[in-house]
Amino acid sequence: MASPNGGDDFESSLLSFEKLDRASPDLWPERLPGVAEFAASCKNPITNSPPKWMAELESEDIEMLKELGSLTTANLMEKVKGLQNLAYQLGLEESREMTRGKFLNILERPKK
């Protein structure tokens, strides 16, 4: 039968006093790029100045962000599908124009 203090000895034998340098990027790499910077910006007290990513936004951009933020999940998915369809249509149109340019020989490089 084990002594009543035997559990304490076992637990103390499991302790490690090794010091790990958490500042090392090699030992603790950032899993998602930019997360540490974002987390640091969230820890700062709230200021009246907008974040640096918002400094380049125009009022139309901010209104678009507010509009997209107010959409439900289903409405947002519809918006994304519409953008995908628009991108596909633009790709088709670009392909037609490139083919047209090729037949008209306007894309040839000038001969030296």
Explain this structure.
- One of its GO terms (biological process) is regulation of DNA-templated transcription.
- Pfam families: LIN52.
- Belongs to the lin-52 family.
- This is Protein lin-52 homolog.
- The protein is 54% helix and 0% strand.
- It contains 4 helices and no strands.
- It has helices at residues 6-14, 35-43, 59-69, 73-103.
- The longest helix has 31 residues, at 73-103.
- It starts with 5 loop residues before the first helix and ends in a 9-residue tail after the last helix.
- The relative contact order is 0.03.
Could you write a compact summary of the structure shown?
By secondary structure, the protein is mostly helical. The protein contains four helices and no strands.
Question: What's the arrangement of secondary structure elements?
Answer:
Elements: H1 6-14, H2 35-43, H3 59-69, H4 73-103
Features:
single chain; 4 helices; 112 residues; mainly alpha; 54% helix; 0% strand
Q: How many beta strands in the DSSP annotation?
A: 0
Which consecutive residue ranges, at least 5 long each, have pLDDT under 50?
A: none
What portion of the residues fall into strands of 2 or more residues?
under 5%
Shape: elongated
Number of helices: 4
Biggest sheet details: none
Structural class: mainly alpha
Pfam families: LIN52
GO cellular component, one term: DRM complex
Family: Belongs to the lin-52 family.
Protein name: Protein lin-52 homolog
